Amino acid sequence: MSKTITVFGFAGSLRRGSYNKALLRAAVELVPKGAKLEIFDLEGIPLFNQDLENRMPKRVKEFKARIKAADAILIATPEHNYSIPGILKNAIDWASRPYGDNSFEAKPVAVMSASTGMLGGARAQYHLRQVFVFLNMHPVNRPEVIVAFADEKIDDNGKVVDKPTREKIKQLLAELVRWTGRLKGE
Which of 23, 112, 134, 142 has the fewest CB atoms below 10 angstroms from its CB? Predict the structure, then answer.
């Protein structure tokens, strides 16, 4: 590839000890050569209010600008009530508005999830993939990074210590970079 691929990552969690934020930190360590991963924290994005979409809060403008500037998107999401968390849906709503100014338009995207449960956030990933359809995004289909029993794979310092999990994250990032290059015609 001729230039560095910029991946913009964020987690659908505000929790300081979030397992999904830990996945993003691991991804920063595992990003392939020829790419860089920039992380954004959704803290400070207010609740979506359509009355404000033409005079967006500064934090939302920053979020939208960083999405637009990126070549690809990486989302790590927990699962809340069989779906994506409200903070993630809220951020997506802001970034896709106002109508005609969808920051996610035609972006390649990869998704990861971690949970202390047996399904590892799989249902949230599938709901998020439904949202990608409306946003006209291009998701990576495989590999899937679904981290079940995350409390056994991420240590108390928030580091992903499970080697197979780290390898899956590495594979996902490599595929996201490859997919991004393919979509750009490289």
Answer: 142
Q: What is the CA angle 103-105-106, rounded to 5?
A: 140
Helices (H), the chain: 19-30, 58-69, 86-95, 122-135, 163-183
pLDDT in tens, the chain (186 residues): 568 999 999 999 999 999 999 999 999 999 999 999 999 999 999 999 999 999 999 999 999 999 999 999 999 999 999 999 999 999 999 999 999 999 999 999 999 999 999 999 999 999 999 999 999 999 999 999 999 999 999 999 999 999 999 999 999 999 999 999 999 987
Q: CB under 8 Å to 164, separation ≥6 — which residues?
A: none
What tokens were used for 146? 């679904």
Q: How far is CA 84 from CA 6, 58, 90, 112, in A?
A: 25, 24, 10, 12
Write out the H or E segment, with its range, that includes residue 112.
strand 108-114
Answer yes or no: are the C-beta atoms of 19 and 157 closer than 8 Å.
no
- Please indicate, yes or no, whether the overall pTM of this predicted structure exceeds 0.85: yes
Contact 140, 172 (CB under 8 A): yes
Cβ–Cβ < 8 Å for 137, 109: yes
Type of residue numbered 38? E
